[in-house]
Design brief:
Aspartate Aminotransferase, domain 1; 15 strands; homodimer; about 425 residues; 7-stranded mixed sheet; alpha/beta; Aspartate Aminotransferase, domain 2
Chain lengths: ~425, ~425
């Protein structure tokens, strides 16, 4: 049984070894923020760094800051900072571009590693963009290239000798359901298939061990649980064993062995740097760099334990306090099978979520009927879970979600 | 004859209709900044906006700002703001990713518009990265795809029936030499070839008219004369007549007809929006958005006239004051044939440039022997040209560039 009284939850906050991490964030008054799975909150250090990189490094240092402020190494430095959060070596991760672009880079390059296998395999319920990117690539390449999509349970059977790459997202963005990275990677390898993991909804909140799982490639988002700010640059992981054989499809000076020689001939840089493209987005990278300091001294096992406790309590409280209100839990009940997110289905999920937001409890909605709540253990307190559920109870009881102002559909990411 | 006395130049500043634009920038004390062709100076409005987008929009607004602060439309809104600077319609430009990624997107998609023509044509002296990107693409596609590179003077002869696309940079990054966009585009079209222009070194300082030239595609950089900050997002132009037939090679939810429906099937958005990929880099886009306000009320013809005057005076003064010092002008003497940049060759260009920077006159160096000076007419004064040349004279006269501290080679972009 989980604790569910407000007093008991306040006790948990009091005893929480991560409680002080909340002070590392700048959070608005009167808001319970349960959408860190979509856009992480603002770390105070990130705000300070934004001012410094603009005012001093750009404004005062100007072009000199490429060397003096070491802008040029940001993609690698910040990559090395993310590495321990995902079980990678410091030389296995770089930051830049978006998750989509990184995914495209790796898909296109990985296909060339298995020239006799023209299929990318994924699940039909993978994040739609990941499927769009893969589908766009194979459509552009033409036959025999192909994107094969199957139901989650059919993946093993679909891993045949034509599959070059298995592309999966660790945490389902709708329900929070979690794949077993180690088991699936191992299975794919047995069939001679490479594996690429999208860690967008898991990096920064779950213990991830790409190395132990022997994953080949990974990508992930900088602005969810990594708190890098809206549209933050994304990360790209290539296992060390592939770094010298893989050929980047987008060949660029930043991935050149000697970028400032301005040679006519392209020579890929050693290691993962060959995947760098374009002048680094210095402002965004600097903000992400500072944001990652919120993980200083944080034990990822403690973080994950708190995430599990928060989500368990949320499910228990919702079912206890909202019984009879047609809320159906859409996330796995078994804590090891889900990420730091709980989703409920409700036919009126959209207006109910809008009414919650109006009360300062911010989650989000995904069509057709999913109310999503993300729990970022660095700044979400146990009492927040209680108060969020109480707000939900009040809304369901009063029927205030029926107010016309909550009915309109707006684009929300 | 151009005016070259300091008094005469101060008079020009006094009469300069653009003189007040300098106040729109935050410039360090004691610096003459002649590297706006590499990294533009900091607009005051950009610094203020950076603070607001981080502190208020992200920190306070959190996920709600996607709608409330209209983050979601930044790529199109900022694109429409750049459009008049390059002679494009507001619906012909979007902002996002880097110049390299945008170039890759357009090259890959454009090849599909001419399926019977497998060649991309460019000049050997094009910006190396542009060549790397094209070369990487054709290498990855394999034969018959090919990148053909010829000397500038041989372009016309190389435009045969196998050339799908002519890819050129308007202003040569080394010498500032300018292509005639209208003539070359028209010539290519006569041969059935599409044309893509890289405007990185011309946007924001020269009057550009993509529409009048009937250019098909263009890309360009946000952090040079557009002053968007280090690594600012880049722009991508597709002429309206191609927007419905061209198919994006990187298919992404942001370029989807209904991004928030999360449908399994990809349907490209109408118009240029289909080239959007990844969650917009909100911080960087907001800063670029604010930076572009420095062009408010600026007459591009006046801007260009000042650019021509500054560069003419710089050449005249250097040749007058530095005669006998082995400085050889590398830029075209005819003002209509160059951009807002003057380059000099000198065997000791590297240490001389370092000595200049130590004196607060910031230009840059490109191997093997090019000293580059960029003139951004919005913040460079006529007297700055005089003072910069005087610093150069003093360095050459004293031989201070021989000091060991100026000899070391560092990476400079």
């Amino acid at each position: 049984m989980v604790a569910t009284s407000r007093t008991a939850l306040a006790e948990l906050d009091h005893a929480d070894p991560l409680a002080s991490c909340r002070d590392r964030f700048s959070l608005p008054e009167g808001v319970i923020y349960l959408d860190g799975n979509s856009l992480g909150a603002l770390p105070r250090a990130a705000a300070a760094r934004a001012g410094r990189v603009v005012g001093q490094e750009w404004g005062e240092g100007l072009i000199r800051s490429w060397n003096q402020a070491d802008w040029i190494n940001l993609p690698r430095r910040v990559g090395a900072k993310i590495a321990p959060l995902i079980g990678a070596g410091p030389d296995e991760v770089i930051i830049g571009d978006s998750t989509s672009i990184n995914l495209y880079k790796l898909l296109a390059s990985a296909l060339r590693l298995k020239p006799d296998r023209p299929v990318i395999l994924s699940e039909v319920d993978n994040f739609p963009t990941d499927l769009y990117v893969a589908e766009g690539l194979v459509r552009w390449l033409g036959p025999p290239f192909e994107l094969r999509m199957v139901e989650r349970g059919m993946l093993s059977g679909a891993l045949d000798h034509r599959v070059a790459l298995l592309m999966l997202t660790e945490i389902d963005y709708r329900t929070g359901e979690r794949h077993d990275m180690k088991v699936l990677t191992s299975l794919a390898h047995e069939r001679g298939t490479l594996v690429l993991w999208d860690l967008s909804h898991s990096a920064g909140v779950l213990p991830i061990d790409l190395g132990a799982a022997e994953a080949d490639f990974a990508v992930g988002c900088g602005y969810k649980y990594l708190n890098g700010g809206p549209g933050a640059p994304a990360f790209l992981y290539v296992a060390r064993r592939w770094q010298e054989t893989i050929e980047p499809v987008i060949a660029d000076w930043m991935g050149h062995a000697r970028p400032f020689a301005f040679n006519a001939e392209y020579v890929p840089a050693d290691g993962i740097a060959r995947f760098l493209t374009g002048t680094p987005s210095v402002l965004a990278l600097s903000v992400l760099d500072a944001a990652l300091d919120v993980f200083d001294g944080v034990d990822m096992k403690q973080l994950c334990a708190k995430s599990m406790a928060l989500t368990d309590i949320f499910i228990a409280l919702c079912e206890q306090r909202c019984a009879g209100n047609d809320l159906v839990v859409a996330s796995p009940r078994e804590v090891a099978q889900r990420g730091s997110q709980v989703s409920f289905r409700h036919a009126q999920g959209y207006p109910i979520m809008q009414a919650l937001i109006a009360r300062g409890v911010i989650g989000d909605f995904r069509a057709p009927d999913l109310m999503r709540f993300g729990f970022s253990p660095l700044y979400v307190r146990y009492v927040d879970v209680f108060d969020a559920v109480e707000a939900l109870v009040a809304i369901l009881k009063s029927g205030e979600w029926r107010e016309p102002r909550f009915a309109q559909i707006a684009a929300v990411t």
